[in-house]
Design brief:
- The chain is an alpha/beta fold.
- The chain is built from 24 helices and 17 strands.
- Strands 7-6-8-9-11-10-15 form a seven-stranded mixed sheet, sandwiched between helices. A five-stranded parallel sheet has the order 1-2-3-5-4, sandwiched between helices.
- The longest helix is centred in the N-terminal third of the chain and has 22 residues, at 24-45.
Length: 642
Amino acid sequence: MADRPKTPLLDGVTRPAELKQFSDAELGQVADELRAETISAVSVTGGHLGAGLGVVELTVALHAVFDTPRDKIIWDVGHQCYPHKILTERRDRIRTLRMKDGLSGFTKRSESPYDPFGAAHSSTSISAALGFAVARDLGGVTPEGLGDAIAVIGDGAMSAGMAFEAMNNAGHLNKRLIVILNDNEMSIAPPVGALSSYLSRLYAEEPFQELKAAAKGAVSLLPEPFREGAKRAKDVLKGMAVGGTLFEQLGFSYVGPIDGHDMDQLLPVLRTVKARARGPILIHVLTRKGKGYAPAERAQDKGHATAKFDVVTGEQKKAPSNAPSYTSVFGKTLTDMAKADDKIVAVTAAMPDGTGLNLFAERFPSRCFDVGIAEQHAVTFSAALAAGGMKPFCAIYSTFLQRGYDQVVHDVAIQRLPVRFAIDRAGLVGADGATHAGSFDIAFLANLPGFTVMAAADEAELKHMVATAAAHDDGPIAFRFPRGEGVGVELPEQGEPLVIGKGRMIQQGKRVALLSFGARLAEVQQAAEALASKGIRPTVADARFAKPLDRDMILSLARDHEALITIEEGAVGGFGSHVAQLLADEAVFDDGLKFRSMVLPDTFIDQAGPADMYRVAGMGAAQIEARVLAVMGVASIGEQRA
């Protein structure tokens, strides 16, 4: 406790309603204390720091003005919600953020009534807020009641088409709805595109306010300090295609921009909007990601995601590793290959660093495209690049590729276009929990005609798969790899294209065959070593491909063994299902083969360390060993040892 910041006012706040006891000046002090508490907590847990620091004042102001949980504050993405969680009866657990059995790093309905809508993917908040507003007006019932609906969305998230679909619908329905555009000129990477440029043009040397709901110059609706500013703003904006023009065309009244770190601006504007708003209104708030913590403000990503760190220096406490990360291996390999092939281009959706493409962008800026938080666009853009004779690598996390699935089917697969999908964060990812798990891509890609689907068992295999994808022009191809460090194998000088649809034998054994797809291979090999000490020596193979399957290898394994077990870091319906279909079609089961498929369980697994999550999933080395013993007729490991 001694190293925690002193927070005398914040200590008196157990729920948001208690903020109403404070003066505006005291609320400013609460914000300062809340920022210190957030920094202290994240230094212990790691997590998303910069986004939360950017909305500390806004969080305090919203909870002081509105009446949560009756009023619904919907944080887009939710990674900025740590200060919100501290204020909403969860401060005593804030140092369990992102840990097993602890608080989620995002908003989560099952965690608190103050989290009315769960999130972790961007650009959903306006749709959700509109749903709450319509439910309210139609007499919907929730335990906390239904009041105002307030969406807080960043300028990066606003670049996604879904946000505009929601605003267009909200303008049409004309329901009372409050959208706060949290404009920090930055999503995770610096935002790109015309919308960001448009928002930049809204800035003046000094923040000004204009409440356009007060049509025809009725600025008297504004609090006194802002009336003169609003009049000046009207003069500045005359004849200019700036201000709230874009948002007003979508049916929103527009307020802003205002300084999101100045409580003297935030509180009066929010109170005015609460008292006066009738239809949909957008409040444009300027903030700084990482605000108030120098190491975050200095960081290129403004402290977006951080490991545990020293509060004084900001130095992150990452455990050293001898193995490179899969992401860095991908980025370096692709960059090296692009030196020899000027047709290779790279596409990412607001995650150049996260996908390793920052290396590529530094070397080939004209051939690397960050399209913003717009996965649907990224996929179709890549499809047309392929149709235009380029070799696009579309690098998207598994969990985010879900957002572009229609485009994968319609624009890529049906047209058999050779888009190369580099799928990072495959499998269970740890502290981000269920929302970021890469559980479904094997199933949703391997069922598409003409798709080639690979998974890297280690970092050396990843290099070969990048080379395989670059050389593959006959339709779409995908390769998946996990988060974190590799297993420490020796890396080849360069990747060599694999024979499409051919796996590899790891060790020859008897009676039972273990057929691994992807990065569980190291656990499979550990299980095989443990089994060998018990007199069971399984055959181990690496499938490499979920589609096309290595028919010859699989049928040989089935023919030469009593039992065949597949292992994959994906949900049911993926690799194991395709193997089972092949075996059924070839009538292998008629001859009595024992077949088992180890997949992720049919549940969403909450955050924990990756090893813990895989234990919950039943896919650790000990559990693979137990599955083999059970199939071979030994009820348990303990019974075998007896």
